[in-house]
Fold this protein.
Amino acid sequence: MTYQWRKGGVDIPIGGNPSAGTLTLSLSNVMAGDAGVYDVIVTSTCGSPVMSNGTSTLTVNAIPTASATNDGPKCEGSVLNLSGTHSGGDTFTWTGPASYSASTQNAVRSGLTLAHSGTYTFTTTSAAGCTSDPATTNVSVNASPSAIIITPPGTVVLCPTSPTELLTTSDGMTKSSVSLNSGTLNLTIPDDTPTGVSNALTVSGIPMGATIDSIIAILNISHTFDGDLTLTLQGPNTNIEILSDQRGGSGDNYSNTRFTSDASKPSITTGTPPFNGTFSAEGLLGNLVSMVNGNWTLKAVDVDAGATGTLNNWSLTVYFSTPTSITWAPATGLYTDAAATMAYTGTATNMVYAKPVSTETFTATASTEAQFTLDGNINESGWGAALATSAGGPAPLFGAGHELNALYVQGGDKVINFGIAGDVQNGNRILLFIDSKTGGYTNGSFGRTGAPQGIDDFNSGTTFDAGFEADYCLVIGTNVPHDNFFFDLYTLSAGGGPAVYLGDISDPKIGADPLTASNTRGFEIAILKTLLGFTGGTVKVFAMYISDGGFLDNQFLTRAGSGDGSYGSGAVTFGAAMPDPVTVPLANLQSYCTSTATVTVGIEGTVVKSTADAGLNTLRSVYGCITEGGTITYDQLTTTTTVLTADMPINKNVTIQGLSDVARPEITLPAGGISTSSGKTLTLQNVDLKSSGSATFTGTGDVIILMDAITVIKQ
């Protein structure tokens, strides 16, 4: 018999699908066009063709589509929002690091840790059971500083005549770790041989100044008589400490045995084979951490004949803390010296002196943002990889020293840091157009009032790439000796400007050290986000090299074509040219995390505003600051009582005065009363007294009570 499958009554060519001439029709990679009604004609060798009894209808359901995004980068402890979009989906699945899963279109993950960084996958399935291709989104979780502690804490009270108050911070450290794993080793431990077997893991990347919190070594050893084994760990400082010395007797193996430098953990001497758990080592592992970057060597020695074993694998984790950048706000009222002659300007420091004019709450912020020495050497690891380089581009038509070689951007808590590797010569400028907020210019039609050279003659007919809307232009120039460099920020507006002179290389937020053909030497500057109108979202930048007269060289970032000559002084349509703006990754702008703490510095006055026994604006605090012979009053619109719980010794002449004889504040005296020093007088005028004990006033000084035209004197 022969077979001929048909679709919609039309023969399916056997040449295109050989199964159309067989008992079973197979369709691969089914598409929407394959939907239809199928039947088969069967022809016997001795009979007439017979059409199949019935037909088969194939329905091809559409495969849904999916895409995934997230609101990262995120900080430890924060909440991650995962967003899935789809077409044709009915049910949803999210998967991610550390066994994460969710079944909603938009998912949430709370209490983020560093282990939650990685790739998250989103799929959707239609009602017909068709599943989309997986969509992925990468999530970055950054380390957060530990909580800041301000000393003194809470509220600090200063009298108008008091000296400055020293505020210091502690902690605010960033916790990190470096982990290394040997992988499968299966190294034989020689029987009864003092040289034993060794294996080294190399630690790197722990910064100078880091505090080593702990180290943990995890071992897996197969051995039939643990009491034969002596295990040691040698640090990069060449010190050697004993992990375990002939422990476990005739027991077998070390199985996921964790040796820690934490002395509070049970000693390995208390364990039994296979020592599964966490133990403190017999030696002091803290003696190994004076140097942490380098080779850490595990050694296993079998000290007696008869039993043999194998070092299967081991791992090492170093936990460490690094100091963070701590800044204070507001800056007004803070100083860097006790005499309050040098105003604090917002630089990172863990100590300031406070002397505000009036009560102020100050916030200390610890940030993990990368710290840069702005000297023109773009060599700190915090810069990361260049966002664009001149590799493959043309040699500068203006000649060596007129060049743009690499571009870097990193965001901080309050600034955006820009690094431009390259050089500029007198009579020319480097322009960095910045798109940092909504709106802006898609072309050169902005005004030129007050514009620095270079931008003032930029061709107004030039158009930028689609999607780039420039808001500002950073202009970098130099002098004839080429020994100083000048930075201006020009606002692009209809009238032009304003222009802000940012400074020269004498400013600590500016650095210059250009070098021909270098990708890591040139110009660095930190610009306040407020100057750039940046409140979040995307930043795009576009760098170019131009003469003071508005003639564009062939130096751009991103680069021009390898054979491009100068772009001249005419209008340029950048959408049709090779140089493009650079979109700064969000991870570059949000690569830091913060923690904060506050302290209130109160300047005490002469008016009681709190009913409490002690603290800012209480009677006790006001009295502490009142001058000899002064008068204390009450803010009787808000405060009409004081409850003293302990003696408030009177050692200066002072008057406590109520509003009137019919509007009197009430003072509750402590059980032991109030003591007045000899030769001193406490005058209470229009004040009600309430005693909580048997005594009212003690001491040899005087008390005068004036109320309702009556004077009571205690002498």
The first helix runs from residue 586 to 589.
